[in-house]
Amino acid sequence: MPYLAKILVYPIKSLDGVEVPQAEVLSSGALKGDREFAIFDVQGKFVNGKRHPKIHLLRACYTSLFGESQFSISTKILSLKIPNYNLPQVFNLDIEKQTLATALSDFFGFSLTIEQNSLMGFPDDTDSPGPTVISTETLTEVASWFPGMSVDEMRRRLRANIEIAGVPPFWEDQLFSEPNKLVSFRVGNVLFYGVNPCQRCIVPTRHPDSATAYPDFQKIFIQKRQATLPEWVKSSHFNHFYRLSVNTRLPRSESGKILQIGEEIKIIADIN
């Protein structure tokens, strides 16, 4: 039986994620607290892993980020380990965004700001801002393509929000159909629309701690993904095979609902 095995949110876009037992759905369809904050340069562009590999050297953890009783963000305390500092620096994101921006400006060597969006966060795909979906067995299979790489390292490279267990590799490829069609499915009582397979960027090619590039990562990935693509997959989305995990949308009716570890996942139907 497919079930929800992990929920991961990434409070600051491009920094480390945090695993949580529950997550609330926002009216936008995003998970509360996911990519709620982002780092911008003076041109208004994201300071992220795509453009600045140095960001991988930062280690972030979050203290009392999620309220245990109400399953929502209560306090936003960031502990950030910055290279060349002996101890982590601690920031309250509610009131110390400018202090954090100053510390990160010193690290990157240029001026930046920290922005917040509590309604949708800062997803890469604003048309489909719902949680990205992958299965544990897919992560296991893909990690095996790269000798010496662990499943957790692959998880950190791909940075999906929802992980499904109890299914074979690439089961989640059922959660998208032809272009202009959606696949409806439920996680517990939360309705999702699966949209398309996520186009990957340069970030998965790098080690999540050191930013070191894995030799020929993209070439190996494309060859293996094409060779292992299930026969039943709707292939019209695959203009190339550097795609993995599923982008989603959630209707406004799901706002305020809670996703919880262990809930069953059921595919409903394709819709136009």
TrEMBL record:
SUPFAM superfamilies: MOSC N-terminal domain-like, PK beta-barrel domain-like. Transmembrane segments: none annotated. It comes from Anabaenopsis circularis NIES-21. Pfam families: MOSC, MOSC_N. This is MOSC domain-containing protein. GO terms for molecular function: catalytic activity; molybdenum ion binding; pyridoxal phosphate binding. Residues 97-268 form the MOSC domain.
